[in-house]
Specification:
With 213 residues, this protein is mainly alpha-helical. It is built from ten helices and no strands.
């Protein structure tokens, strides 16, 4: 195992960088999309229910099936990987964004409006900062989930550590097959832990002190 890792250390580092980059970029895109959608629907009970239903139904779609469907229109490579990871990353964040915004005390919102703040300014300066801890919790859940899904996108020749896993599985019983699978799995777990620690630090930096207290 040590010999396998030593011989391919640079390749493992490069694949790890690709994997982390794919997940982080898709998480950022998913967060922007989720917060924007939540800001549009959270004031309507019907739209809020619809958003929650879409989130619940979307999580039941097998990632393999979605990747297979995307190969036909988009081919192999980065594009289907980005679409799949972003899609699954959006679902938990959207649900938490809606929950966070709808859970804000109406009195706080009315007070902000009462001192002359516009609806948009109230959303940006009052509601989103108060909902941020809940949204960030959704981002952390999403990050752990899509870290594994990003490995599955190797099925469509997407970037990342999934190549080690699929390569090993395709030749089980052959030389270094188990080592290849273990390397991919362990590296994904390590990246997931690192990303979660980074998100915890981000939460400490970006959460207003009054809310933390």
């Amino acid at each position: 195992m040590l010999e396998f890792v030593g011989d391919r250390f640079n390749q493992i580092l490069f694949s790890s960088w690709q994997h982390m980059s794919l997940v982080v970029q898709c998480l950022i895109l998913a967060t922007v999309l989720s917060v924007a959608i939540a800001a549009l629907v959270y004031r309507s009970g019907a739209l809020t229910s619809l958003a929650n239903s879409v989130s619940a139904v979307g999580l039941t779609i097998p990632s393999f099936a979605l990747i297979g469907l995307l190969i036909a229109p988009f081919g192999f490579g980065v594009t289907p990987a980005v679409i799949v990871v972003t899609f699954f990353a959006t679902l938990p964040i959207l649900r938490n964004a809606v929950v966070g915004l709808t859970g804000i005390d109406k009195g706080v919102v009315e007070s902000a409006r009462g001192i002359g703040m516009s609806r948009v300014r109230t959303l940006v300066q009052v509601e989103l900062p108060m909902a941020w801890p809940v949204i960030l919790a959704g981002i952390r859940v999403s990050a752990q989930m899509v870290m594994g899904i990003a490995a599955i996108t190797a099925y469509s020749l997407g970037p990342g550590l999934g190549g080690f896993i699929f390569s090993g599985l395709s030749r089980l019983g052959g030389a270094n097959a188990v080592e290849s699978v273990v390397t991919g799995v362990v590296a994904v777990i390590i990246l997931a832990l690192i990303l979660d620690l980074l998100l915890v630090g981000l939460g400490r930096i970006t959460t207003p002190r009054g809310i933390r207290v």
